[in-house]
Amino acid sequence: MYASRVRTSLRGWGGVGAMAVLCALALTFALLLPCTQPRHDDGGGARTVGPGLANGSQARAGDCEDSEAQKQTMSPSGADGLTIDAIKSRTGAKRKLIVGVDQNSYHWGYRNPNTETAQLEGFDIDLVHKIAEDILGDPDAVQFKAIPTSQRIPAIKDGRVDMVVRTMTITCERLDDVAFSAPYFKTGQQVLAPKSSSVKGYDGTLAHKRICTASGSTAYGKLKADRDAGDLPASTDISTTVPNQLDCLVRLQLGEVDAVVTDGALAASQAAQDPTLALKGDAFTTEYYGVAMKKDATDLVRRVNRILVDYRADGWQASYDRWLSATLGKDSDPSKPPAPQYLRKG
Q: Which helix (H) or strand (E) holds 315?
């Protein structure tokens, strides 16, 4: 896979701790679209997959009410446009796809300290290289930028990156600020706490407990909304937020917090790093990871969606098997990418 070729250096990054062990949460995935479905043009060079199409534009906060609506995205296309032309017009050493990623999420996007150059590796990194190969003809034509959770949307809106591929959940609120590709992974929020803890899950046992979340994360938004609505004990302390999710693990190990709430895939990864910790209860949300881009980068969104169609047929499974199958299961529901819902170009 492309991750084996990750040689691009990440400028301005600090050292990375070796504390990481693969694990991801086994959650239900939507079924893979049949690879035999015919593709056709919807006009303007768009290659779309027959079933699952509806008229309109990508959902926004006003009409985005559930996880199924969040999956809706623009139809795939192989055509270039203003955004892609600008990327291709970069010359020399700057002719690269600029992508915001994580460097601390083991087997998603992380620096492997056991490699000669501390290579970036993981499931998200494989996808980045696939996108770069399609757009620029070189899977290594990538400039990686470390983006904290809270800076993912600002980095896109400010033009510091072309896209973010960083276990980023598609949400109604975020759809007001950025555009998302079709979903490429399904997960849900889950609680992580010491095995000896009285915490049983996302329930009343969180009363008087200190919870850590990443700043700007869907986990924090869910906790705050539920506490405000009375669905979470009012005594639950959610004041501890950190720039990167891995920092929550450190806080938990130091006894500064009682539990962590984050995406199930990331929570399980953190649990694997410390045998004294465990996932508590089931996932209590359904969420999808997508590639985030500028709202007006329609050509890039549709191009990434086209790439994902091909990637599901050839590449997604190999990457999953390499990075995630050891904990999620090779032949289980998590081994299938979620099926997108394409919207015809309006």
A: none
- Report the number of secondary-structure helices (H) and strands (E) in the chain: 10, 20
Distance CA 109, CA 165 (A): 9
User: How does pLDDT run across 228-282, given as a tens digit for each residue?
Assistant: 999 999 999 999 999 988 899 999 999 999 999 998 888 877 787 788 999 999 9
Confidence label for 37 from pLDDT (cuts 50, 70 and 90): very low
DSSP string covering 187-231: E-EEEEEETTSS--SSSGGGTT-EEEEETT-HHHHHHHHHHHHTS
Going by the DSSP 8-state scheme, the letter that residue 344 receives in this structure is E
The 8-class DSSP code of residue 98 comes to: E
Give CA separation, 154 vs 174, 195, 219, 293, in Å. 11, 37, 19, 11
Residue reference for tokens 């055509």: 79
**Tokens standing for residue 47:** 């290659």
Q: 103, 99, 100: which is closest to 244 by C-alpha?
A: 103
DSSP-derived secondary structure letter, 247:
H
Contact in structure between 181 and 299 (CB atoms under 8 Å): no
Identify which of 185, 175, 171, 218 has the alpha carbon closest to the alpha carbon of residue 56: 175
